[in-house]
């Protein structure tokens, strides 16, 4: 069982299907999840100051609750949540002063015992590519996927350790398992402009547009990402482009769900495997398990 940490952005944007698709996908592949109770925002940005401890509290609370629940680890979907939680956990394993200060605030000593998983990591390490390939019912032949990682999944490598930060291949391996062709392109590990979009929109648009342009010139038919903010920026920067120059942007769950038969099929499979309640609503809203 994995404790599921939704995070603010994913939960606030349920209409985009990311959460529903991810939870249905995992449940159909026999990965059980249970939403953490009383979770709070992770802070969105990791506190870099070494003498900053208050900024660690909400993440440590969630990590501690996951550990207390006896879960296999904490599941995150959002790249920013993963980035913050993994780095906080990394620090709490090694920083005795942080352990003491945070423990003083929270009333218990946490030393980084929880394993933090991104969805991509769960699919790679807990499910495995052979199991995913067996579940494919509609191979994605003819699709040319440009896999965009951005920065939050990758760096700093020594703290996150998810993939090779210079030459990641995790999303490519997943898409190729589904029968798709992947294309390599410049800037796939560059920042999309991130939160600058709110105060320096032209700067963020320029950063995202070079990603879109490079992917299109590499022959991609669509670009996929695991980050809500990256998806927003990559879509927003194309508003001024002619329709023929625009490149569809999707969460990495979309091609997975398509190849495995659609979200309703996956929900039905999970329901038949023991999920309780109406399968059409089993993976939406705050009662997703």
From TrEMBL:
It comes from the Bacteria. One of its GO terms (molecular function) is oxidoreductase activity. InterPro entries: Cys_rich_dom, HdrB/HdrD_reductase. Residues 3-85, 146-234 form the Cysteine-rich domain. Pfam families: CCG. Keywords: Oxidoreductase. The keyword Oxidoreductase applies. This is Heterodisulfide reductase subunit B. It comes from Anoxynatronum buryatiense.
């Amino acid at each position: 069982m994995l404790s599921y940490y939704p995070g603010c952005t994913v939960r606030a944007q349920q209409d985009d299907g990311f959460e529903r698709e991810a939870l249905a996908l995992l449940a159909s592949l026999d990965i059980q999840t249970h939403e953490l109770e009383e979770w709070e925002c992770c802070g969105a940005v990791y506190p870099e100051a070494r003498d900053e401890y208050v900024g660690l509290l909400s993440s440590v609370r969630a990590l501690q609750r996951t550990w207390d629940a006896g879960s296999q680890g904490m599941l995150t979907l959002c790249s920013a949540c993963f980035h913050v939680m993994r780095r906080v956990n990394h620090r709490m394993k090694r920083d005795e002063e942080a352990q003491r200060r945070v423990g003083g605030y929270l009333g218990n000593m946490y030393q980084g015992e929880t394993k933090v998983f991104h969805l991509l990591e769960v699919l790679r390490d807990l499910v495995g590519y052979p199991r995913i390939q067996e579940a494919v019912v509609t191979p994605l032949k003819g699709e040319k996927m440009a896999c965009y990682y951005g920065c939050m999944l990758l760096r700093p490598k020594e703290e996150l350790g998810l993939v090779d930060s210079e030459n990641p291949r995790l999303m490519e391996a997943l898409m190729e398992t589904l029968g798709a062709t992947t294309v390599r392109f410049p800037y796939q590990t560059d920042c999309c402009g991130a939160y600058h979009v709110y105060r320096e929109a032209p700067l963020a648009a320029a950063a995202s547009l070079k990603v879109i342009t490079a992917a299109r010139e590499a022959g991609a038919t669509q670009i996929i990402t695991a980050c809500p903010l990256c998806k927003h920026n990559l879509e927003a920067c194309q508003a001024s482009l002619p329709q023929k120059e625009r490149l569809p942007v999707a969460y990495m769950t979309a091609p997975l769900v398509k190849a495995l038969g659609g979200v309703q099929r996956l929900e039905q499979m999970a329901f038949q495997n023991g999920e309780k309640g109406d399968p059409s609503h089993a993976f939406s809203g705050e009662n997703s398990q």
